[in-house]
Amino acid sequence: MNTRLQVNHRPPSIAACIQVVLFSAIMSIQAVPSVAKTGYPLLNYTSLDSVAIDSLLFKISQAQKKISYSGTLERETSHAGKPMLLRWQVHHWAPSQTLVHFLEPEALQNTVIYNDGKVFKTTGDSHVARSMRRSGISRALQEGQLLEEIELLSQNYVISLQNGADYIGRKVLELKIEPKRNGRPSYFAKVDAEMGVLLETRRMPANIHADSLVQVSRFITIRYGFPDDSLKYQNFTTVDSLRQRAGATQFHDIAALIGYYKETLLIPSALPSGFTLRRIRAFQKEDRAFVHLQYSDGLSMISLFQRKNGDTDQRKNRGKWGGDNAQLSMVQGEKSGVHYHIVGEIAEDELQEMAAGLVPITRKSSANNLPIYFIIAGVLIATGIYLVKRFMEKTNV
After folding, report:
1. Domains in the chain, ordered, with CATH?
2. pLDDT tens digits, 357-394
3. How confident is the model at residue 189 (pLDDT cuts 50, 70, 90)?
4. In sequence order, which residues have a C-beta less than 8 Å from that of residue 215 and are 6 or more positions away?
């Protein structure tokens, strides 16, 4: 039975608030990107008819892999219902070495984090360090990965581009991504016209109130080129190697997951409009196992987490994550001995409808359908052989 979660009214700590900001970024990153290629059909234009939006989006998605820089980045969020500003220095050595030094708030001024893809070094606040280790230090950057799935994005959003006023001494293009249906977020960005780096981004949640705080992230200074290498060799309190999370297995389709996973699975019979499955992961250890299914509409994400009831500890009920302006909703419940919770940047009633349509699937039940799969496969193979023969006959003639 699905259970609507209650709002947690206790103000979160500053460190917890930062974790929510980072988690919000995670939700917007595409897990199985279908990267656009230069020359992809033009999507939508405002005043720059000579500029291919798809080429710009591809350039944005590749910027962190190709461009080295140093700069100061700030992010506007909220804490206990009040606006709060986070600020940090970023030093990035393309393609994958990054150092972040927090400047504000004051409680985090001595927190420094470095990640080169193999080693994770930290000094200062351990809670923020754990959050960034789990989610990835790249979440503290102006990433463009959410713009990689151009085809899916264009199906659900209107994408437009125009010239903008210079910003921090750089020529700027203004990018707008606006939803085709109600209940979805909007995204606005100032893009460095030469480098493809996102200089400023504004993510406006769906159904936002006039006095609500928009998620804003911007560079206030930036200098291109390799940062000082000595920054990487300062003394750090902790040094850990980065390894793939133990027990994590990824799958390309649900059929492969069913063949691997021992427990009952809950599969949605219907999804919110515009969403499609983008990532499948299973985590299995001796004492517990759970599955993470991730869905996307090109900009927003929905995550469905599930486990056999009793395998892991229940989390505290929270209907909205991270304060007054957070737009991540969550519902949870139990079905066929499986506990689930669904998180997404959409209205909670849409998540409730998704939860109501969850269908239990086991190896046994899926095995009963194998004859149907063989019949379908046989028909497809026979059709293919027939078409090839017809083509060869026409060619010979």
Report:
1. 2-241 (2.50.20.10), 248-371 (3.30.200.100)
2. 999 988 765 555 545 455 455 556 766 676 666 666 65
3. very high
4. 21, 24, 75, 76, 77, 202, 203, 204, 205
